[in-house]
Design a protein that fits this description.
This protein is mainly alpha-helical. Helix content is 61%, strand content 4%. The strands form 2 sheets. Strands 1-2 form a two-stranded antiparallel sheet.
């Protein structure tokens, strides 16, 4: 997909590719510029994404969406952002005020930090200084994203714990269980990428997807697809599912299920604190989309056939390709929200623990075996055999789960039939009434009950009616 180009060198501007050694040499003013650029990008991206989501879902539901504030309603998100901090900030009685106040910040800050290791483009010139379009990179950069996503859930848990509300507490407990379940599968989906790229650095992972191995077809030199979304398709699919679960978006928005928990963990929040939770959700969506672009879609590298152009991966053009790929993932978030209902909590846990984690484990073991085999001179046929084994294992797992569901359904049908048969048997045999008057002593004694005098009855009636 990235490079099916004929007779094109692996990378037209290999000299512009950043490396891990290019980081750590920026001056203080350049670092400040990058930090402000990332902050503004995430903030403006959130405003635009809220507007785009409301417009797209409006079109899906045959209604206009926001169209009053500004041209096409573009200023609606900005107006909402100005309105929220101006609303009354209510802190309920009985809450833990310290935890209640810092919980929104604990959700928003890690989402911003995670974007520091996402590469936007190659080495460019800013005010005459050559620098990568990336704030920072580490030998274990991807682990920073996992660590920050784990820290973000503390804000949700503390919000529910400190609010003294059963709805908020249930939402926070759901969130902690959900993040644990889906973070394991997400981490396992990353391992094949690390094995193929040989590094946990985001810069090295993008460089590893620069071009595939060359082959010849009718005398033309072509390259195999090099994006890990193609080479490691199961990892890509697992990551797509887990990133939706990590961001608490439909159909996995159980922590804030408004039909069950009012608003979940942020039920008691208002004003700026609620806005921070709202901001954290959309910033996390942009972050996981940027990470998916970096790990599976070649990062900022131009897709084929744009990569045929020799200047596609130089200068500031890669920034455009990166934003286009991120926009695709953001559209998928909106598409899912407008198309799928919220799943049940037991279905959420079953998908995480019985499908995603076992599938990711089997896929990771297979990729590790293939990599070792290839390093020792194995043939391409191993890929085919290993792929068939994985497909067979997945089919067996699916068949086992389907059989279990079928057995449970049949058992429920048998129980219902037995209950119906017992009910029919009870209706067929005459059963005397069980609450006759003589059970309570009425009519068992010969003494007559004295009648109420008419005058008393009349006076009692007057008292009752108030006449």
């Amino acid at each position: 997909m990235t490079s099916l180009t004929a007779a094109v060198p692996p990378r037209a501007v290999a000299a512009a590719d950043p490396a891990l050694s290019d980081f750590g040499h920026d001056t203080w003013w350049l670092i400040v510029i990058k930090v402000l650029a990332i902050f503004l990008f995430l903030l403006l991206g959130t405003l635009f994404m809220i507007w785009a989501e409301r417009r797209l879902i409006g079109r899906m539901q045959q209604r206009p969406g926001p169209n009053r504030a500004g041209k096409f309603g573009l200023l609606q998100s900005l107006m909402d952002g100005i309105k929220l901090p101006l609303k009354e900030d209510i802190i309920p009685r009985g809450v833990d005020k310290i935890l209640f106040v810092i919980a929104p910040a604990l959700s928003a800050i890690p989402a911003f930090i995670s974007f520091a290791i996402i590469p936007f483009g190659p080495v460019v010139s800013i005010a005459g200084v050559r620098t990568p379009l990336q704030l920072a990179d580490l030998p274990v950069a991807v682990l920073l994203v996992l660590a920050m996503s784990s820290m973000g859930v503390y804000g949700i848990v503390l919000a529910g714990w400190s609010a003294s509300s059963p709805y908020a507490l249930l939402g926070s407990l759901r969130s902690s269980a959900q993040v644990i379940s889906y973070e394991i599968a997400m981490g396992l989906a990353f391992v094949p990428v690390f094995l193929y790229s040989g590094s946990l650095s985001t810069t090295a992972i993008v460089a590893a997807q620069a071009h595939g191995n060359e082959f010849h077809l009718f005398g033309a030199g072509l390259h195999y697809p090099s994006w890990f979304a193609v080479l490691l398709l199961p990892s890509f699919v697992i990551y797509l599912i887990t990133m939706v679960g990590e961001t608490n978006r439909l159909p996995f928005d159980l922590p804030e299920g408004e039909g069950e928990l009012v608003a979940g963990y942020h039920t008691e929040y208002s004003s700026l604190k609620f806005a921070l939770f709202y901001l954290a959700e959309y910033v996390s969506m942009i972050t996981v989309s940027g990470l998916a672009t970096t790990l599976f879609l070649g990062g900022w590298a131009a897709p084929w056939p744009i990569s045929v152009w020799s200047g596609a991966n130089s200068g500031w053009w890669p920034l455009l390709w990166f934003l286009a790929k991120v926009s695709i993932f953001m559209f998928v978030f909106v598409w899912l929200r407008g198309s799928l209902p919220r799943i049940r909590y037991d279905q959420l846990m079953r998908l995480g623990w019985k499908v995603l984690i076992p599938g990711a484990l089997v896929w990771t073991l297979m990729i590790a075996t293939i990599r070792v085999w290839r390093r020792q001179g194995g043939s391409t046929g191993v890929y085919i055999v290993a792929g068939l084994i994985v497909v067979a294992l997945m089919l067996l797992a699916w068949g086992w789960d389907a059989a279990e569901v079928g057995r449970a359904r049949r058992a429920a049908e048998i129980d219902a039939a037995q209950a119906e048969a017992e009910a029919d048997a009870r209706r067929a045999f005459p059963i005397p009434p069980l609450d006759l008057p003589h059970y309570h002593g009425v009519g068992l004694y010969s003494e007559a009950v004295p009648a109420v005098p008419p005058a008393t009855a009349k006076s009692t009636g007057k008292e009752v009616t108030g006449a």
